[in-house]
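sorry to bug you again but im stuck and you know this stuff better than me. what follows is a protein written twice so to speak, once as letters and once as structure tokens for the fold. mainly i need to know what kind of three dimensional shape the backbone takes. anything you notice is useful, everything is just below:
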Amino acid sequence: MAAPGSGFIWDLAHAAGVSFRDYGERCYTDKNEPHRSRASLRGLKGHYDPAYLDGIGEVTDQQRLDEWEREFRQFEQRENLPALTVIHLPNDHTVGTTAGKFTPRAMVADNDLALGRLVETVSHSPFWLQTAIFVLEDDAQDGPDHVDAHRSPLLVISPYARHGLVEHARFSTVSVLKTIEQLLGLGSLTYFDDRAPGLLVDFQREPALDGYTVRRPQVRLDEMNPAGAPGAKESATWDFSQPDAAPEQALNRVIWQSVKGPDSEPPAPVWSAQSAAAGLDLR
């Protein structure tokens, strides 16, 4: 992915004097020091955790969350949590059905549990009253659903979020960026986030301070792919060293058959943007 000419949101934060911390985003394992990561961008130097490791399937999201929580407890003791935190939890990409590696459903469960632990930790901390967490896929086009291949799940988690709301208005990834900029008092990176609709309409004035308790996984996190799993041969040839390096559609099919059975056929992608433009309801 090419770096945007106008920079990243952490560059905007730095220019505005807003503190930030990065965990894994644009950071890669140091080949000379396999237990250390390094930032690939100058703007992250001094603002990332080198002990937060890369590697889909090589490091579990539980291990990553353990490291994030270690630093979070330090910030809690010092009362100096950065205003902006970016966290990369990559294991829901999976490694397909590569024999001897974690199954897709185990890796997705690992990812879900890590997110749940993060929310539980933050929501029981002194920072909760001033927190908003936005959870968004990094590759929305890579998992089409039955309504529209342009859709992507978004979670907004905060005492001020309207609890239980299922938003049917049309937003985009840039809307999340716009909302973070608004909450932190930042400017805009580009015309697109400046003009995008924000998500503040989904916030309420009075906070609901109930903390979240993580749900335990319903599948084993150590479940391994057998040698004869559907797509095992193909998976063994694919590059999982970085997110989205493996062929997207072929991997989607392998994951589907791993979960639904080797003879099952994944549904064809649907593109309904034209229907939306015509005023049709895509819900």
Q: What stands out?
A: The two ends are 31 Å apart (CA to CA).
